[in-house]
């Protein structure tokens, strides 16, 4: 009985609460109707009487004035309704955009996490898929670009260290002509390097660390590595056609037989580098520092080396035909057996003949790169300086 009475009491309280709410709603509705009645019935007459200030007018004129006030009030209220509707729509649009942005960021975060997880796979094709996924994320999400660049650089440093540490890596002393291109022996590393060279074209931060990496016979054609740290990296016989290495750090780098034709090395720091037999044809070397660099048998035909520093550099047997060295620093540079032509430009007062330079006929226009073998499969000739 007590339980039934308590249930009946609860139901009674619920009915009373519902009744109170209904009564409140009715009261609110009646209040709203009273306000509208005041606005459209009473207020126009009050406004007209106030404006007349007791003046006597015909009833028809007064009625017309009252109706004009009502029309004006309707227009004002309609305008307010439109403004409120526009504001509500704008707020809803902002909320929708925020929700969409949050959803997209969550989706990108999930993709990012899955791609990073793929890099730890023991299957090369899975790692390549993860690298491509990160590349795509960096192109679509500028906020994640720097993180992707850092991950790709770390991937290269850990997978291609110099000296090589993995048993399957080519030995440090293997001849370059007996080595397969990077994309053949380590396809995932080539993908990471290519993505890095594309993404570095538009980045906010400076310096990417690729020091002490094994990039022998890497394909870097047309890639961008401005302000990249490649100190002590081994890039022997790498294909660097039209590469951009502006202000890059190349201290003690190995670029033997590397093809840097029409590349950009402006203000690059190539101190103590090994560039024997490197191709620097029509390359921009403006203001670069080649102090104590070994450039024996290097091909610098038609290179723009204005402002470059070759202090104590070894340029013996180098091809300098058509090169612009008009404002270069050649202090203590070794030039015995280097080739020059009438198109070679020397610093004012520099006696190239006394330095051992040999004048020969100018070679004329350079052959098209389309008629030459790919840099990554090019067979490097033996260097006389290494005999």
Outline the structure in words.
- This protein is mainly alpha-helical.
- Helices cover 41% and strands 2% of the residues.
- The chain has helices at residues 2-52, 59-118, 124-140, 145-159, 182-185, 187-199; strands at residues 208-209, 228-229, 339-340, 358-359.
- The strands form two sheets. It has a two-stranded parallel sheet with strand order 1-2. A two-stranded parallel ribbon has the order 3-4.
- Helix 3 packs parallel to helix 6 (187-199) and helix 4 (145-159) packs antiparallel against helix 6 (187-199).
- The radius of gyration is 40 Å and the shape is elongated.
- The mean pLDDT is 86.
Helices and strands in order:
Blueprint: H1 2-52, H2 59-118, H3 124-140, H4 145-159, H5 182-185, H6 187-199, E1 208-209, E2 228-229, E3 339-340, E4 358-359
Parallel strand pairs: 1-2, 3-4
Helix pairs in contact: 1-2, 2-3, 3-4, 3-6, 4-6
User: Runs with pLDDT <50, length 5+?
Assistant: none
Number of helices: 6
Helix coverage percent of residues? 40-55%
- What's the overall geometry? elongated
Distance between the termini: 114 Å
Strand content: under 5%
- Which structural class best describes the helix and strand composition? mainly alpha
Evaluate the radius of gyration: 40 Å
Biggest sheet descriptor: 2 strands, parallel
What is the H-and-E element order? Answer: HHHHHHEEEE
Spatial order of the strands in the main sheet? 1-2
What number is the mean pLDDT? 86
Number of strands: 4
């Amino acid at each position: 009985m007590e339980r039934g009475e308590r249930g009946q009491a609860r139901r009674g309280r619920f009915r009373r609460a519902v009744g109170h709410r209904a009564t409140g709603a009715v009261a609110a509705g009646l209040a709203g109707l009273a306000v509208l009645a005041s606005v459209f019935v009473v207020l126009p007459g009050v406004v007209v009487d106030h404006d007349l200030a007791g003046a006597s007018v015909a009833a028809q004129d007064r009625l017309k004035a009252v109706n004009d006030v009502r029309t004006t009030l309707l227009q004002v209220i309609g305008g307010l309704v439109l403004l409120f509707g526009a504001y509500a729509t704008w707020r809803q649009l902002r909320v929708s955009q925020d929700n969409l942005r949050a959803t997209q960021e969550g989706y990108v975060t999930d993709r990012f996490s899955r791609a990073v997880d793929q890099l730890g796979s023991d299957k090369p094709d899975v790692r390549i898929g993860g690298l491509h996924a990160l590349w795509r994320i960096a192109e679509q999400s500028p906020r994640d670009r720097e993180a992707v660049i850092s991950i790709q650089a770390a991937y290269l440093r850990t997978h291609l260290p110099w000296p090589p540490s993995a048993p399957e890596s080519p030995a440090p002393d293997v001849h370059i002509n007996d080595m397969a291109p990077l994309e053949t022996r380590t396809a995932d590393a080539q993908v990471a390097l290519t993505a890095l060279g594309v993404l570095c074209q538009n980045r906010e931060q400076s310096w990417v660390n690729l020091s002490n990496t094994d990039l022998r016979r890497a394909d870097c054609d047309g890639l961008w590595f401005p302000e990249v740290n490649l100190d002590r990296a081994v890039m022997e016989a790498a294909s660097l056609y039209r590469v951009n290495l502006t202000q890059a750090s190349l201290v003690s780098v190995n670029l033997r037989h590397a093809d840097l034709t029409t590349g950009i090395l402006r203000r690059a720091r190539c101190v103590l580098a090994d560039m024997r037999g490197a191709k620097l044809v029509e390359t921009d070397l403006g203001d670069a520092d080649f102090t104590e660099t070994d450039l024996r048998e290097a091909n610098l035909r038609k290179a723009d080396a204005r402002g470059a520093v070759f202090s104590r550099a070894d340029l013996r047997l180098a091809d300098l035909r058509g090169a612009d060295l008009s404002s270069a620093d050649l202090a203590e540079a070794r030039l015995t057996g280097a080739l020059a032509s009438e198109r070679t430009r020397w610093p004012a007062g520099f006696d190239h003949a006394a330095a051992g330079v040999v004048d020969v006929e100018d070679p004329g226009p350079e052959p098209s790169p389309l008629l030459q073998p790919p840099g990554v499969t090019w067979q490097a000739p033996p260097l006389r300086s290494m005999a």
